[in-house]
Amino acid sequence: MAKTVLTYGTFDLFHIGHLNILKRLKEKGDRLVVGVSTDEFNAIKGKKPIVPFAQRLEIVQAIKYVDLAIPEENWEQKRLDIKKYDAKVFGIGEDWQGKFDDLDDEVEVVYLPRTAGVSTTEMKRVLSEFDERHVESLKNTLDALSQIVKELS
């Protein structure tokens, strides 16, 4: 009988950290089922993904380590999915350490280390700062160019 591993995530701005955790989780069993948080569920969690849910689901499903990608719609779904997919392992990143220990009555719960130096949250922060910092500079540059064109006309 196949050993099923179950995990969940938003998987926004898919990066090497996401790929690494999926690969490590696949190594813990024969079958990897991945719940991808819907946009509506992310809103409840206070997250606003950049990539729409349907695209994130398709990206995750295309990863060779993933056997099945499913929508994650609420917190309670985890226990239902453990039973539905006969999961033996529930795995997630160490940033959730301790948050899912209550599932250990049904599955082995593992928290995996994050990939150093990469984070969707950090990527979004950098992009956000870039926008805020550079929009004013760009506006000033365009105003200066406009003034030069006027003077040369």
Automatic annotation (TrEMBL):
One of its GO terms (molecular function) is nucleotidyltransferase activity. Residues 6-122 form the Cytidyltransferase-like domain. Pfam families: CTP_transf_like (PF01467). The keyword Magnesium does not apply. Keywords: Nucleotidyltransferase, Transferase. The keyword Transferase applies. InterPro entries: Archaeal_FAD_synthase (IPR050385), Cyt_trans-like (IPR004821), Rossmann-like_a/b/a_fold (IPR014729). PANTHER family: FAD SYNTHASE (PTHR43793:SF1). This is Glycerol-3-phosphate cytidylyltransferase. It comes from Glutamicibacter ardleyensis.
